Amino acid sequence: MQTRATGGKDLVEGGPSEEGTTLLRGGFVYSPADPFATAMVVQGDTVAWVGGEAAAASFADGVDRTVELDGALVTPAFVDAHVHATSTGLALTGLDLTGCRSLRHALDRVAAHAATHPADRVLLGHGWDETAWPEGRAPSRAELDRAADGRPLYLSRTDVHSAAVTGALAALVPGLDALPGHAPQGPLTRDAHHAVREAAYAAVTPVQRDAAQRAALAHAAAQGIGALHECAGPRISSQDDLTALLALAARGGGPRVLGYWAEPVAGPQDLERLRDLRAAGAAGDLFVDGSLGSHTACLHAPYADAPATSGVAYLDGEVIARHLLLCTQAGVQAGFHAIGDAAVDSVLAGVRAAAQALGVERVRALRHRVEHAELLSDTAVAAFAEFGLVASVQPAFDAAWGGPDGMYAQRLGAERAAALNPYAALTRAGVPLALGSDSPVTPLDPWGTVRAAAFHRTPAHRVSARAAFTAHTRGGWRAAGRDDAGVLVPGAPADYAVWQVGDLLVQAPDERVANWSTDPRSGTPGLPDLTPGADLPVALRTVVAGRVVHRRQEQPNG
């Protein structure tokens, strides 16, 4: 892919630009305006034209620069609808236990990290998953004390709903052993986990936080992501963390960031806090329950591998209903984290109460959202559609933990696990989907996310690659109340990515649909081959508001 200046103006390769006009030609442009488009014109921060090569030639002499695509694919930039940027950056630059093959491997990695970070006040790590280890258990406090040489250490489980800690970190939280979820040697959950997480992240300096946030935004841009929904809150990060991230993003040079603040709204002071934080809504990880991996997702029936528990309910019905009522009255988007069927039903009861008090249309207009929404009954799916709720979902969860032998089946049994993440049912019912990663729970990997939705481990829950792609681009913007973005048509924001790809094709879960979609008469634009095992596209360039925020460096020969 080459860039050349025309019209007497110079363009420094790799430098962002918000001025003038750019013509991209000689590739494939994924656009509903023209399913066979090969070229696009961008004026400043806006898409000005999409069309074919013959028309593109007429623009060539009048633009400021031309990008020769050389067969590359241009798509809308992805939107990751659920991210924790600082935690993502810390995992990218620090102790990441994702992929550890055993408990011994994890402890060795902890010891190596402690040895190479002698100045860190608190050691921070993430990503262990005991269900994949031959030992079948989490690290004990005593084992971590030895590995970390007695220093304070916080290690979040892959789902970030429990953590293993050292005695030195536990000592920083007075009264920890009296909090719900405390275990002397095992992982901490519930209030005990929230307390140690707060203590651990309080040790992160502003300089460390800034470096982590920059690393997360740069990594997102390199994956073709043009916008992130930061899911912040008092139990997850801090107000300073959110405001610093929003300020960093506002300076440009990376993806856009929309910040959600997860704190129950109980009165006018809470709504005022949202305005002060410049939050997009009172939503995100407002925990109604926890996670399946940590046995804290709230279920109607007990866990198959822990029959003494059905999970944890963090919010009662009155708090949920009041939050939804006050947010709807104020015209503020509300939302919750809800994974288990009991948690989802609690949210729906609150939505119904708000609709009865204020009318269904006022509720629908705000596009209240539910994060994760994994275990849904048919009645719940219908209620999502009735009230216009957005399902903010993470297909990589199914890729990581689904299937008859996965963690979901361990926790729930194969039959109940097969009901999780019913994307096809949601799509058929007209429920808007917004796809994300919940990074660092699963990686920032948009094409992998689309693949996971299209090749769900439960075939009945699969959606077409096109539907999944739309949910990961336009769906993220619609979840934030914007219908003009996430699509390459004249007048839309110039947020796009350029991809190195192989053949383009149409993949649909139903053979009849696939056969029609590949017929030229259908006008269906193709997408890269996302069949499991196929190479995923590589982002050559990511552009946000007309500014280049990522450009892939050329690889040396050989």
Automatic annotation (TrEMBL):
Region annotation (Disordered) maps to 514-534
Superkingdom of the organism of origin: Bacteria
Q: What is this protein called?
A: Amidohydrolase family protein
Question: What Pfam families has UniProt attached to this entry?
Answer: Amidohydro_3
Q: What is the lineage of its organism?
A: Bacteria, Bacillati, Actinomycetota, Actinomycetes, Kitasatosporales
Domain annotation Amidohydrolase: ranges: 66-550
